[in-house]
From TrEMBL:
Name under which the protein is recorded: Ferric uptake regulator, Fur family
Transmembrane segments: none
Gene3D superfamilies registered for this protein in UniProt: 3.30.1490.190, Winged helix-like DNA-binding domain superfamily/Winged helix DNA-binding domain (1.10.10.10)
Cofactor needs: Mn(2+); Fe(2+); Zn(2+)
Residue sites binding Zn(2+) per the record: 84, 87, 121, 124
Species of provenance: Granulicella tundricola (strain ATCC BAA-1859 / DSM 23138 / MP5ACTX9)
InterPro entries linked to this entry: FUR, Fur_C, WH-like_DNA-bd_sf, WH_DNA-bd_sf
Length: 125
């Protein structure tokens, strides 16, 4: 008999924060936003619950070159990300308008790609 994962008020607050943010969040961002819902949440609770949500495939990690991992709700269609140079927040860019296949050397086969855009978000600009 499989053990069902527990749904605690902390875990529900973390889910809510990711849903409402609509963008990838770091552990620290998730902590700050979750503490507005559940007083006294610790960073250890955030790490533990994010790890569980990744294991449950509810969250997916977003690896950022030279920066900390962010997490977003899993199951989104292929997309890329924009990172603000000032506040460091990460935002989704819908779709993929990059024409890169024609630039591959002959005989190369693609297994995936990453593309990040950097600049200033609307709040910081």
């Amino acid at each position: 008999m499989a053990i069902q994962p527990r749904n605690t008020k902390q875990k529900e607050a973390i889910r809510s924060v990711f849903t409402e943010a609509g963008r990838p969040l770091s552990h620290d961002e998730a902590l700050t936003l979750s503490q507005e819902i559940v007083d006294g949440l610790s960073i250890a609770t955030i790490y533990r619950n994010i790890n569980v949500l990744v294991e449950e495939k509810w969250l997916s990690p977003v690896e950022i070159p030279g920066d900390t991992t962010r997490y977003e709700i899993a199951g989104k269609e292929h997309h890329h990300h924009f990172q603000c140079n000032t506040c460091g927040k990460l935002f989704d860019l819908q779709g993929c308008g990059i024409e890169w296949k024609a630039k591959l050397p002959k005989g190369f086969r693609t297994t995936g790609h990453e593309f990040f855009v950097y600049g200033l978000c609307s709040t910081c600009s």
